[in-house]
Design goal:
alpha/beta, Rossmann fold, seven-stranded mixed sheet, globular, GlcNAc_PI_deacetylase-related
């Protein structure tokens, strides 16, 4: 006969895990309470790169640059086909809705510019002056721009934002966020920082924000059409790692 089960001590009442905060408590002397604008190359970039920060700053504005509708007869790009769409226009219309749901999770407002994504043959000619005009109209106190890693649209939007910075000056405060997913590629962040330094732009560490938060996971999950092709499960990839921000200043300037 087989031995019976060993005596097992009676378990204590299970402790409930401490609830995760909906948004991180971030304090910095130079962090404004309002007037925050995030420049996002595509619909999902601001949420992937800044979602935790935005969750703690309701009422912030997300400006998506490549948000224009392609023409009806636009050939279907491979990326949109992999995402399951019948046409390029249907893909953008769906992403507009996904973005609305994501913004609602973060209690953020959205602005869409009408430039086409590069996969639709779009370009960023004239974007620097366009951004300068938009920012002069909105008058934010803090601008978050993509550091500008790997993807052509990201690099061009970042460079255009830097051009707008030259036009508008240091008010508002200018801070770069690391482009999610691409920042994991070996050496890319360091290469971009070195390239900015060669142009007379200094980037110094400004803020790190914990990102493994339920509210960010819900916002990322709103972009359902792209999660599979990206190989991304909300909360289990780069989107859950801490968000890093870099304060930008011109060489010779003192940091504020």
């Amino acid at each position: 006969m087989s031995p019976g089960p060993p005596d097992v001590p009676r378990p204590h009442a299970a402790r409930r895990p401490a609830p995760q905060p909906e948004a991180p408590h971030v304090v910095r002397r130079d962090l404004p309470e309002g007037g925050i604008l995030v420049i996002s190359p595509h619909f999902d970039d601001a949420v992937l790169g800044c979602g935790a920060f935005l969750a703690g700053r309701p009422g912030s504005i997300v400006m998506t640059v490549c948000a224009g509708l392609p023409p009806e007869d636009m050939p279907l790009p491979d990326w949109d086909r992999r995402c399951g769409f019948p046409s390029a226009r249907a893909a953008v219309l769906a992403r507009i809705e996904e973005n609305r749901h994501a913004m609602a999770q973060l209690r953020a407002d959205e602005i869409r510019l009408d430039l086409l994504d590069s996969q639709y043959g779009g370009c960023c000619d004239g974007l620097g002056p366009r951004l300068a005009r938009e920012l002069a109209r909105i008058r934010p106190r803090l601008v978050l721009l993509p550091l500008g890693l790997f993807h052509d649209d990201h690099v061009r939007v970042s460079d255009a934002a830097l051009m707008a910075w030259r036009v508008l000056g240091d008010r508002p405060l200018w801070v770069a966020y690391e482009d999610a997913l691409y920042r994991r590629r070996s050496g890319l962040v360091q290469q971009r920082l070195a390239a900015l330094r060669a142009r007379g732009i200094r980037a110094t560490p400004w803020l790190t924000v914990p990102a493994d938060l339920p509210v960010k996971r819900r916002a990322v999950a709103a972009y359902a059409s792209q999660l599979g092709p990206l190989g991304l499960t909300p909360g289990r990839g780069d989107d859950a790692l801490p968000e890093h921000y870099w304060r930008l200043s011109l060489e010779g300037q003192a940091d504020g």
